[in-house]
Amino acid sequence: MERLFAMRLDRESHVRLCLEALADIALTAPREHLHILAADIHHGARALAKTPKLIFAALLAIVLGVCATTTVFSLVHAVLLRSLPYGNPERLVYLWTPAPHVPDLPRERAPFYSDILAWQKTSHAFTNITAMQRYLAVLNDGSTQRV
Asked: Contact 48/54 with Cβ under 8 angstroms?
């Protein structure tokens, strides 16, 4: 094939020969690649049919990988990417009461409800002030205990 191409290069126009070669490659290369791909798929299917446990293990690994990826993305989206469900979330602030001298409490804790009521009445810097409290219930001998 190389000798034939070299002989044609001596006798024919280089541009015409290159265009013919490119057209031939464009027509035959995809067909050859599809033939090789079909043979590879056929060989792989026969090999996998002989080992169904391997197929199950591979599918299980793929399913677990997709589930883990979806879970992690959902958490990242919910916590980091999605904005808060409030109008103008960039204007929200968190107010706390410092408690550095109390050893059993965190350094920053929620303010007393009386402080919040006083801030609501006297503050002109904020549009609105509200409070939230988090409770954790622990079941202990059938009764609930606030922690």
From this structure: yes
The predicted-structure confidence for 80-97, as pLDDT tens digits, reads as follows 888 777 788 788 888 877
Of 29, 21, 28, 23, nearest to 4 by C-alpha is 21
Which strand (E) or helix (H) includes residue 146? strand 143-146
- For 17-43, letters b (16+ CB in 10 Å) and e give eeeeeeeeeeeeeeeeeeeeeeeeeee
pTM here is: 0.37
- The domains of the chain are located at 1-50, 52-82, 89-146
- Tell me the CA distances in angstroms from 147 to 23, 62, 104, 133, one per residue in order: 79, 42, 13, 12
144 pLDDT exceeds 70? no
